[in-house]
């Protein structure tokens, strides 16, 4: 390893580390800073800007924003809350189930924010440390991105630059990723329930907070009566998502219902999402001036900037070392298939985005393994994909920090060594099981 390469790696990791320390959208800013240093100071050629990923995120978030203003998102949260409260003793299983399927539907893990206070309340009512259900519910909301039909990561993986270029259909990928990732989360929930410390009243921090009057009593359950347009908007949204899946299936070469494709998959998802939003605005008569101030719109803008900076930085480094990466990948990953999942795990922990990680690494791996000539090895990429969800490793991701802040019992806390937080082990286990199930299922279906 020469000095120049060492300097490049220092800039790459340094930009990411600085962004993580600054927090939030700043990781996108520092990604741009890293691109400037790598290109203008160290002479690398700038990588590709991930426009496709950014535009998909923008269109999906635009649609979810309309759903939020119409109160449809509130309706979904109410349904999920009723599920949690109706079976409180199963909170350790229901919490990750709810956050998982909300993400599946919405295509963003930020929907977990709305469920965190409910999970805390239900756990407190059962005298269970809220850290236990939260420790798997938050990672589950991130892992579900790899199984959502409208997430930018899945759309990219189903595209021509990734698995779609190998003739693997979009519906087949969903048929593999949804059951394997969900089962991985549920097995983890079982393990966490059996081995974690559940008794809230034995938690020393909780005992101290109760003595100081810092823990709120469990609130009485009450549900706001939502306008009729809330249910209507949810129905429109669900029908729209189904239309996306059906269209993507119809244009898939393996299905071939539509042969003369006028609108490709990426364009279809973007245009369908915007169309759904337009229908919600027209039918539900929402005030469009409220769209810009929603939490969903703000988090979506944050995600776009982060992906722009970090993915561009990652692609700038990777694209300038493609030959070396191909040589390493072809010799090592083919011999040790599970190593790809490990690479994706640590890359996503740094790149802070499932879509950015997939875009930076997967095309190079596909080329390195010559998968177009050796399609039998495609199962390695399919099975390893859930490993791009390790956004919980650094305790700085918004939903993770939200869980820490919203748990007034103090059971969900970040240790003094930074990495000793309650999400790390359950999240890693959930990904490991998801990948393991993928290696069992993918070779059967591909």
What does this structure look like?
The chain is mainly α and 446 residues long. The chain contains 19 helices and no strands. Helix 1 (3-22) packs antiparallel against helix 2 (26-41) and helix 9 packs antiparallel against helix 19. The longest helix has 26 residues, at 170-195. The mean pLDDT is 87.
Secondary structure blueprint with pairings:
Blueprint: H1 3-22, H2 26-41, H3 51-69, H4 72-86, H5 91-106, H6 116-125, H7 131-143, H8 152-157, H9 170-195, H10 204-211, H11 228-251, H12 265-284, H13 295-319, H14 322-332, H15 339-351, H16 354-368, H17 378-384, H18 398-406, H19 424-445
Helix pairs in contact: 1-2, 1-13, 2-13, 3-12, 3-13, 4-5, 4-11, 5-7, 5-9, 6-7, 7-9, 7-19, 9-19, 11-12, 13-16, 14-16, 15-16, 15-17, 17-19
Tally of helical runs: 19
**C-alpha termini separation:** 38 Å
Structural class: mainly alpha
How many β-strands, per DSSP? 0
The shape is: globular
Work out the strand percent: under 5%
Helicity, in percent? 55-70%
Radius of gyration: 22 Å
Ranges where pLDDT stays below 50 over 5 or more residues in a row are: none
| Largest sheet composition | none
Oligomer kind: single chain
Mean pLDDT across residues = 87
In sequence order, what are the helices and strands, one letter per element?
HHHHHHHHHHHHHHHHHHH
Key features of this structure:
single chain, 446 residues, mainly alpha, 19 helices, globular
């Amino acid at each position: 390893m020469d000095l120049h390469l060492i300097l490049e790696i220092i800039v790459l990791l340094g930009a990411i580390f600085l962004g993580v320390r600054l927090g939030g959208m700043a990781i996108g800013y520092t990604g741009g800073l890293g691109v400037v240093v790598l290109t203008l100071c160290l002479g690398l050629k700038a990588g590709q800007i991930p426009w496709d990923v950014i535009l998909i995120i923008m269109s999906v978030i635009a649609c979810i924003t309309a759903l939020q203003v119409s109160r449809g998102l509130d309706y979904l949260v109410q349904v999920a809350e009723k599920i949690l409260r109706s079976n409180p003793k199963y909170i350790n299983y229901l919490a990750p189930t709810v956050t998982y399927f909300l993400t599946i539907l919405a295509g963003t893990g930020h929907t977990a924010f709305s469920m965190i206070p409910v999970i805390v309340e239900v756990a407190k009512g059962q005298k269970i440390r809220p850290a236990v259900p939260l420790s798997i519910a938050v990672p589950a909301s991130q892992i579900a991105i790899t199984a959502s039909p409208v997430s930018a990561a899945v759309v990219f993986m189903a595209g021509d630059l990734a698995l779609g270029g190998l003739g693997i259909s979009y519906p087949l990928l969903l048929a593999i990723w949804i059951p394997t990732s969900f089962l991985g989360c549920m097995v983890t929930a079982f393990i966490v329930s059996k081995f974690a410390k559940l008794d809230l009243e034995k938690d020393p921090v909780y005992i101290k907070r109760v003595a100081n009057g810092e823990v709120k009593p469990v609130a009485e359950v009450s549900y706001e009566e939502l306008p009729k347009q809330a249910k209507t908007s949810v129905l429109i949204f669900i029908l729209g998502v189904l239309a996306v899946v059906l269209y993507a299936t119809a244009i898939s070469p393996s299905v071939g219902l539509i042969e003369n494709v006028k609108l490709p998959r990426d364009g279809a998802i973007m245009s369908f999402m915007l169309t759904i939003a337009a229908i919600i605005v027209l039918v539900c008569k929402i005030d469009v001036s409220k769209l810009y101030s929603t939490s969903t719109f703000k988090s979506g803008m944050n995600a776009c900037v982060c992906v722009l900076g970090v993915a561009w930085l990652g692609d700038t480094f990777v694209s300038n070392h493609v030959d070396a990466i191909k040589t390493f990948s072809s010799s090592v990953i083919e011999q040790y298939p599970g190593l790809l999942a490990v690479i994706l795990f640590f890359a996503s922990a740094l790149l802070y985005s499932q879509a950015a990680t997939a875009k930076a690494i997967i095309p190079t791996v596909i080329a390195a393994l010559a998968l177009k000539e050796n399609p039998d090895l495609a199962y390695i990429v399919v099975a390893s994909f859930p490993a791009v969800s390790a956004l919980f490793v650094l305790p700085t991701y918004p939903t993770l920090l939200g869980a820490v802040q919203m748990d007034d019992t103090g059971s969900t806390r970040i240790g003094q060594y930074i990495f000793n937080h309650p999400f790390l082990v359950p999240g890693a286990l959930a990904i490991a099981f998801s990948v393991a199930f993928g290696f069992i299922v993918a070779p059967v279906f591909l």
